[in-house]
Write a structure and sequence with these properties.
Structural class: mainly beta
CATH architecture: Distorted Sandwich
Number of helices: 1
Helix content: under 10%
Low-confidence stretches: none
CATH topology: Beta-galactosidase, Chain A, domain 5
CATH class: Mainly Beta
Largest sheet: 9 strands, antiparallel
Shape: globular
Number of domains: 1
Number of strands: 27
Mean pLDDT: 98
Order of helices and strands: EEEEEEEEEEEEEEEEEEEEEEEEEHEE
Distance between the termini: 38 Å
Strand order of the largest sheet: 10-11-12-13-27-23-22-17-20
């Protein structure tokens, strides 16, 4: 049989959960609970749109102008966000990951980001998806298999679905005290601001409230965490159903995007929630940037579950 255009697919089942993982980009293609979608899916024979479900590595979000300096050497990455002129969401999202372990409820993928122009480092990336009765757990581990220090960051790119309706109809709980402001045209980071005062509190969702027509495409930090050092975003529909996403202390940031598009069929149909190990343009700012020495590894993890 011909392999679907989004790669080899692996179905996972545990309790009332079912997920499908596509090998290209180690992408979460579907996730359902009792038949209810928890994310915006994409078709197996579809070129994955808008990074839906992709694993982002070796950086999440943007490198401004695709240009940065590391270890005293200026690098120029391909501009994969040509409309804004940035390098977007890393180099792994179109790699065809190989499945190296498999069970009925889990799958582990491996791929190598090879040294290349703009990123002269070799990093092995292992992504594990494990489904149980508490939801879908994902871990990403990077190992520097090159000879020099390598800058590193990662995160996922799911579009969460609370239930019936669209983003405007759902209630968001986002336990973040600080928002990274950006320029309106190119989303270039400007500075940190208190969510209570920035834009008259438009980004303050520490107390649950409806999103309505609020536009969000921002990174947040200053996250409130529980006793296990876990941060959680909650998204509820009007009938009380919903979805949550939690992540560990390896991700001090989260990007949230209301997925505004010019196409009525896709406009605001899901809320992108992207835990990140570093903020946008960390290759330039150095903020929370992981630097992997040769042979060193770093791991981050997150969970999506039904409410």
């Amino acid at each position: 049989m011909t392999t679907p255009i989004s790669g080899t697919h692996f179905g996972l089942t545990a309790g009332d959960y079912h997920a499908t993982i596509a090998s290209v980009g180690a992408s979460l293609r579907t996730l359902e609970y009792k038949g209810r979608p928890l994310i915006v899916p994409f078709d197996a024979d579809e070129v994955r749109p808008a990074y839906r479900g992709a694993t982002l590595a070796p950086w999440p979000n943007r490198v401004v102008d695709g240009r940065y300096t590391f270890a005293g050497i200026e690098q120029q990455l391909p501009l994969t966000e040509p409309g804004r002129g940035h390098a977007l969401h890393g180099l792994a999202s179109w790699l065809d990951f190989a499945a190296v372990a498999r069970s009925g409820s889990g799958v582990t993928f491996s791929a190598t980001v090879e040294a290349q122009a703009g990123y002269p480092h070799r990093v092995d990336v292992v992504v594990t998806f494990e489904l149980d009765e508490d939801g879908l757990h994902t871990t990403v581990t990077a190992t520097n298999t090159g000879h020099d220090d390598a800058p590193w960051g990662t995160g996922p790119h799911p579009y969460l679905v609370a239930g019936d309706g669209r983003v405007d109809d759902w209630t968001l709980t986002l336990p973040a005290a600080t928002v990274l402001t950006v320029t309106e045209d190119r989303l270039i980071p400007v500075g940190l601001a208190d969510v209570a005062t920035e834009g008259d509190g438009v980004f303050d969702f520490r107390v649950p409230r409806p999103i309505e027509d609020t536009f969000i495409d921002h990174a947040f930090t200053g996250l409130q965490r529980d006793e296990s050092d876990t941060a959680t975003v909650w998204l509820h529909a009007a009938d009380g159903s919903g979805v949550s996403m939690s992540w560990d202390s390896a991700c001090p940031w989260v990007q949230v995007h209301t997925a505004d598009t010019d196409d009525p069929a896709t406009d605001r149909i899901g809320l992108a929630v992207e835990p990140m190990t570093c903020p946008p343009d960390a290759f330039n700012s150095g903020t929370d940037l992981v630097v992997l020495s040769p042979g060193a590894s770093a791991t981050a993890g997150w969970t999506i579950r039904a409410v």
